Every structure is written in structure tokens, then in C-alpha cells.
Automatic annotation (TrEMBL):
Entry-linked Pfam families: Peptidase_A24
Keyword Acyltransferase attributed: no
Domain of life, per lineage: Bacteria
Source organism: Paenibacillus harenae
Protein name, per record: Prepilin peptidase CpaA
Record bears the keyword Transmembrane helix: yes
Residue stretches making up the Prepilin type IV endopeptidase peptidase domain: 9-110
GO molecular function, one term: aspartic-type endopeptidase activity
Amino acid sequence: MNIVILTAAAVLLIVAFITDVSKQIIPNRLTIFFFGAGVLFHLIAGGIHDGAAAVAGAAAGFVPLLLLHLAKGIGAGDVKLFGALGAWIGVGAVLQLLLYSILYAGLIGVVIAVIYRSFSGKITVEMTALLLPGDEPKKRQWLRFADSGKKFPFMLAVLPAAITVWIMLG
């Protein structure tokens, strides 16, 4: 893959990871900007054919996750993120990233369930919060998140999935 494409995708993933983990949101302006930039880059670099391929990649990332979003499995920001990523990395890579993200999310969910159920939940959540980076208010935010029954930020699965895909493609 082209260094510009890899760099753009990496920047998008890192910023999305930071905002999703810290604020539990992936900003629209981030995903819209990267979607537009991805399509424009491919149009300029390879003409209408590559521009169409970028749109196809965006659709391949967006549509399956839209179905997960409608089933209340993930947030809308994750859907738009995968659309933007697809515009940069294409159909094949975004589908691989989607597959590995779902596998990592399942693994994370199983680990959380086993830990929570094995060690009287609340105690384990509080002990885990001690290991988290950040100050006390940040740790309390994670504790409220864990106690609320909400799902964990999907970016916790997407980032290792992206590393896995890039190693495989490398």
C-alpha cells in the first residue's frame, strides 16, 4: 500500500482511538474530512477508476457496520469511521479490518465477561481501574462506564485489528 494511504489511515485511526477512548465519541468532522480526502486523493492519483474504487471501499466499510449499528451493536461514529477508512484503504483491506475488529471485540467481550463473573465483578472493575492510565477523575469515568452496562469503545478492538491487518499485508 502507498505510504500516503497508510499514513492517512494511521492518523485517522489514532485520532479516532484517542477521542473514542477518552470521550466515547468519534467526531463527524474527522470522519467526513477523511472520507472526502480519501476520495479526492484517489481521484487525483488514479482518475475516475480509483475514485470509484474509493467510494466502493467506503461503502464496503460503511454498510456492514450500519447493520450492526441498527442492531445497537456499535455507535454511529464507528460506522462512519469504517466508511472513511474504506475510502482510503479499499474494499479488501477494509473488509479484513472489519473481520479482525469483530474478532478482537468478541475476544475482549469474553475476557471482560470472564473476569467480571469470576471475581465478583465490582471488585475486579475497581482493581482494573487502578491499572488504567490517567488521573482519578478519568478512572472514575471508566468505573461509571463499566457499571453502566454500556459496551466498551469499539476502537479498543479496531486498533489491534488494524495492526494485525497491516502486518498481514506488509
